[in-house]
Design brief:
It is built from 8 helices and 19 strands. It has about 400 residues and is mainly β. The protein has one domain (about 5-410): Porin (Beta Barrel), CATH 2.40.160. Strand 6 and strand 7 form a beta hairpin. The longest helix has 9 residues, at about 50-55. The chain starts with a helix and ends with a strand.
Amino acid sequence: MNRSLALLLATLPLATTAQVDSTGTRKDHGTRFMLEASGAYDSNTLRNDLLLGLYQGGELERDLRQRTLDGLHDANRGGYEWRVSASCTWGDSLFGNPRWKPRASLSAQGMMGIRFPKDAYALAFFGNAGYEDRTAHVGPARFEQVAFQSIRFGVEDHPSGSYLELGLVNGQALHTGRLDKADLYTAPDGRYLELALDGEYHVGDTAAGRWSKGIGVAIEGQWNHGIRLVGSPATLRIRVSDLGFVAWNPGSLSVSQDSVIHYEGIEVNGILDLDELVLDRHRIQDSLGLGYKAGGFVRMLPAKAALALDFGREHELPTGTVIRAYTVQVDHRLIPGYIPQASVIRQLVLGKALVAQAGVLYGGFGGLRADVGLGYSGRHWGLHVHTPNVIGLASQGAQGRSLAARLDVVW
C-alpha cells in the first residue's frame, strides 16, 4: 500500500469545521485583513494508525488490517480538506453608501470524499481468496477528489459583517466516480472472475505541466441578522461557499460501463487496485475493457452551506469583533461521504484579550468529536487556533485529525 491509496482510503475527505465568520464589528478601522489556514481528515470507521501506516508506506501488519475490517460496515465514510485563504475589506464607503465596503479574497483548497462498502476494503487489503465461490459487493460507492483556486470580489456590510463575493475559479485537478453496482464473483479455485459493473469515472486533463485544467465561477457569501431569542438578542447567520462550477477543458477524460464482464487468467489485484483508479494509470481501464472518451464537461463544485445561531452574553474584543457565549451550527457539504454536521460551541472570555472555546460536533466525515480552541485579541490584531477533533489529534486509536488557525489584522 502506498501514499496515494492513503489519500483515498486513509486521509478520507477531511472535515474542516471552522466556524462561520463572527457576528460583525462595531469599530471601523478602515481596513481589515484576515488570513486563514485549515487542514483535516476524518472517517467514521478508519482509525489514525491505519491511515498513518498507509501514508508512511511499507507493509501493514495483518492484525491492524483485520482490526480495521472488523470495525467496518456497509456505510463507511471518510474524507479530507485543506484550505488557505486571505481576505481584505477597506475604505469608508462604496457606491456612496457608508455601510458598504469593498472586499476581495484569494483562496486555494483541495478536498476528497468517499463512501464505500466493507467488501471494497476487504478486496483491497486482503485480496479475493476469501471470496472463492462468493460474490464481493464493491458497490455502491462514490468518491470525489478536487483541487481549485479562486479570486473573488464583492461587498461587505459594516457593521453587520454580512458580505457577498463573486469570483473566478481555476480548476487544478479532478477525479470523481460512482459505482452503482460492482459485484465481483470469484469461481472455485479462481478459474474465472465475473464482474457486473454499472458506473462511471471522470478525470480532469492529465497533461503534465498544465496547472489550469478548467475555468469556472463561484459565489461566496454570509448573511448576519439580529433576532430575539427568548427575549434576549441573538444573531442568525447563513453562509454559502464554493457555490459554482468549473468547465473542465477538452483534455478531460470520461468512462462509463453498464455490463457483465467475464475474465480468465487475470490477477484480481490488477482489477481492483484503487490506487490505480485514483491516479488514472489506465491499467484498471485496460483490465475492464474500458476506454476513455476525451472531451470537456461542466461539473458543480462541492458547495457548502452553514446555518448558525449565536446567543448568550455578548463581548466585544479589542479588535472590535463581536462574539457571543454560545454558537449552535449545522452545515453540509455536497461531496460523497459527508453527512450534515451539527455543533454546539461555548466561548468563554478570559480577561480582556483571551477567548477559550469548547464544544462537541457530530457528522461531517466522522462521528462524535470534541472541539477546543484558544484565541488572543489585541488592539490591531488577533489570532485564533482550534481543533474540531482534539482526541484524534492526540490518539492513534481515534479517527481523524484537524487543525485550523485564523489571523486578523485591522488598521
